[in-house]
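> tool_call: predict_assembly(chains=four)
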Amino acid sequence: MTVTVRFFASYAESLGRDALEMTLAEGSTVGDVLGSVRGLPGADRLPPAPLVAVNYSYAQATMRLSEGDEVAIIPPVAGG
Amino acid sequence: MTVTVRFFASYAESLGRDALEMTLAEGSTVGDVLGSVRGLPGADRLPPAPLVAVNYSYAQATMRLSEGDEVAIIPPVAGG
Amino acid sequence: MMDVCISQEAIDVASLVSSVASDSNGATAVFVGTVRATNDGRAVTEIEYSAYGEMAEREMAMILTEAGARFGITDAAIHHRIGRLAVRDASIAVAVGHPHRAAALDALRYIVDETKQRAPIWKLEHYTDGAREWVNAGAKASR
Amino acid sequence: MMDVCISQEAIDVASLVSSVASDSNGATAVFVGTVRATNDGRAVTEIEYSAYGEMAEREMAMILTEAGARFGITDAAIHHRIGRLAVRDASIAVAVGHPHRAAALDALRYIVDETKQRAPIWKLEHYTDGAREWVNAGAKASR
């Protein structure tokens, strides 16, 4: 299956990109996405367990993904 | 000595006036002023122990007065 | 900057907010009190506010000073409107500026609560049935 | 009326206040967050706000719904500004209307606190020495 992975703010800057399409085996989880992201250049600057959202809702690493999901890796927020 | 006594809102309405000059013996207190006010027509509609201010500060009935003081009888407030 | 104003003019919330702004204030907390169309189930047409002006200003200035000491506030402003106000008109607005929101919000609540209890201001409510009544005056015994 | 807006436009506090007005709301509580000239002792020239728009709007709408259930609020609005903001510019404003002030003030605090913790919005601070830094990003480990 294919999912969209989005990066923001300091993470996008570290990785030098704000999105990528990722192909994964059926039944893959958020944790699997994070594992793949770990291999990207600049990923060493991300924390071990970053905040993640799937389709605009915060999600746990164990959450199973579906075709076309949007997975966002969320840096520490600083709104307001 | 002479003091100015001021009335507001519902009390002024009950008494039909918003101020009066009152002559009192030296050493008189706020309580003495209240006693005299008690005699005014319409005063029966005032509570037994109304809120009082002397020279713009809340005061107790026992407070001694001086020449030219301004004594205000304050109805229950309803600001804001 | 601490400021108290009692006047017949309409309250300008935006200018009250900017009056407590500063380079170091990251938080501004504001309260606006407005005339409601009903009170205790009775339909209100307007409210007439009156004040013992000199004392009300003094009392509100003291409340701001107390808030300054208690919450570390240096920028706060109160504007209380008097005269005849229609439904939705603002009768009071309080703005507090502070570097951080917790102090601004705490001080705001203190200032509004204290003003309502202590400022010698009164409300004559006019109802659609033509009656009118002093608010709180009914409770003669209670202060 | 519950409303969430994230935009580059300057925040208009007065219109935010009137957007939560109603005949029955006697109290409006407002918070305005503004850019400060210093942060941790460093002189700031401007702050660049960015947001994961779709999620931030959803998260803030959820926060308003939670405030509605928890404090009996039906009228609340948030406007978060994004883009490059100068010192004193408002980055966020929240307004809450309610018949009485206690609920309005309590709901306001809840909405501001929750928004700051949950809305996916970020701050790139620019300093007078030319440096720039993501706020909170330093604390890599903490979320």
